[in-house]
Design goal:
- With 411 residues, the protein is mainly α.
- The chain is built from 16 helices and three strands.
- Strands 2-1-3 form a three-stranded antiparallel β-sheet.
- The protein is flat and about 90 Å long.
- The relative contact order is 0.08.
- Belongs to the GSP F family.
């Protein structure tokens, strides 16, 4: 399967967009874009649609920079496709309608690829499998199960529900991570601007005083001189450091594991990340198991969906324990990563034969817990951030006015 995916992924680059003009069966002039892996393939698609081609040429640019398909867009696409198929609209016609309605180049490209592959006789699951960077294995497996059972609309709705809940959870975690980082970055940026642009104006005025400056003011002037002299070097080093760290994380699984383990130990943020990983694991496992995916395969899919390398390794270890005959709740207990509430719910689900329902309840509980913790974190951070910004900016302003105050007292 992995080899097949790699082969298909390598072939993605051969597909291009082809602009065409022609007449339909009623003789009306029409134009549009079709995605194909060659001019003859594009011509064949148009002929099947009853188009008398007048002009057909390759479009130069297929996907513009920055048009990567996001998980939120996949969730919207899945919901739209499920709704249209439930309404009785044929699959190809549904894909055409969704592709024509989106303005996102990357999403439109993917939908056109799906349409092209299905037109050539592939199933929807096979067409989706050619996009491993955008469509995960759970999506493919559930769609394949839906096609085999003749319940594609219901399975797509289940996938849409799953995607929407996972995306909502991700957005809450991002809020917890990005909000303080963004505000602190703005504070540092304002401080740097004051040091580089404003403080030098005061420095020229202080030179005419002919007296020693307060230590606090002198420290600020020294920081300003350093900022003026080395600001671009600092930006360059910071950018290079971030890029190097990103590259190292891509190449070193051990470094990723160390990062994720450290993240779980952070105060305030650590519990949010931990509960988010549990919620994503439970939601993915519940969705897979309810769709008829064997527990062992569902655990493998859930490992990658946890979003944390430490949890991923633990879940894969759980899979081995289940293969060896242990119950799921006992395997979870062995990892030491799951709390008593989750373990008890899973144990009850296994005994009652309702594991998927109990896992969904676990996911609901932890998702709500994450939301409450993020709201609490935000409310606590707001006054703290105000204090930090006040100290940074207010401290600089105070240091600049100290010599003026001392001069007034002396007079």
């Amino acid at each position: 399967m992995a080899t097949s995916r790699q082969h298909r992924g390598a072939g993605i680059e051969q597909f291009s967009q082809w602009q065409w003009r022609g007449k339909n069966a009623r003789g009306e002039l029409q134009k549009g874009i079709v995605v194909a892996n060659g001019k003859e393939s594009a011509r064949s698609q148009l002929v099947k649609q009853g188009i008398m081609i007048k002009q057909l040429q390759k479009k130069r640019q297929l996907v513009s920079f920055g048009q990567r398909v996001t998980g939120a867009q996949v969730a919207v696409f899945t919901r739209q496709l499920a709704t249209m198929i439930r309404a009785g609209i044929p699959l190809l016609q549904s894909l055409t309608a969704i592709g024509d309605s989106t303005n996102h180049a990357g999403m439109r490209h993917m939908i056109h690829r799906l349409h092209s592959d299905i037109s050539e006789g592939k199933s929807l699951a096979q067409a989706l499998e050619a996009h491993p960077r955008t469509i995960d294995a759970l999506f493919v497996n559930l769609v394949a199960a839906g096609e085999q059972a003749g319940a594609l609309d219901r399975m797509l709705e289940r996938v849409a529900d799953y995607k929407e809940k996972i995306q909502a959870l991700k957005s809450k975690v991002r809020k917890a991570l990005y909000y303080p980082a963004a505000v602190i970055s703005v504070g540092l940026g304002v401080t740097a601007m004051l040091l580089i642009k404003v403080v030098p104006q005061f420095e020229s005025m202080f030179k005419g005083f002919g007296a020693d400056l307060p230590a606090f003011t002198q420290l600020t002037l020294n920081l300003s001189a350093m900022a003026q002299a080395y600001w671009w070097q600092a930006l360059l080093v910071t950018g290079a450091g971030l890029m190097t760290l990103k590259a190292m994380l891509k190449r070193s699984p051990r470094l990723v594991l160390a990062r994720d383990r450290l993240a779980l130990k952070l105060p305030v943020l650590g519990p949010i990340l931990e509960r988010s990983a549990v919620a994503r694991f439970a939601r993915t496992l519940a969705t897979s198991f309810a769709a008829g995916v064997p527990l062992i395969d569902a655990l493998e899919t859930s490992a990658g969906a946890a979003g944390n390398r430490l949890f991923e390794q633990a879940i894969l270890g759980m899979r081995e324990d289940v293969v060896n005959g242990q119950s799921l709740n006992f395997a979870m207990r062995n990892t030491g990563l799951f709390g008593g509430m989750a373990l008890q719910m899973v144990a009850i689900g296994e005994e009652a034969g309702s594991l998927d329902a109990m896992l969904n309840k676990v996911a609901d509980f932890f998702e709500q817990d994450v939301e409450d913790r993020v709201d609490t974190l935000t409310s606590l951070l707001e006054p703290l951030i105000i204090v930090v910004l006040g100290v940074l900016v207010g401290g600089l302003v105070l240091s600049m006015y100290l010599p003026i105050f001392e001069m007034g007292n002396a007079i």
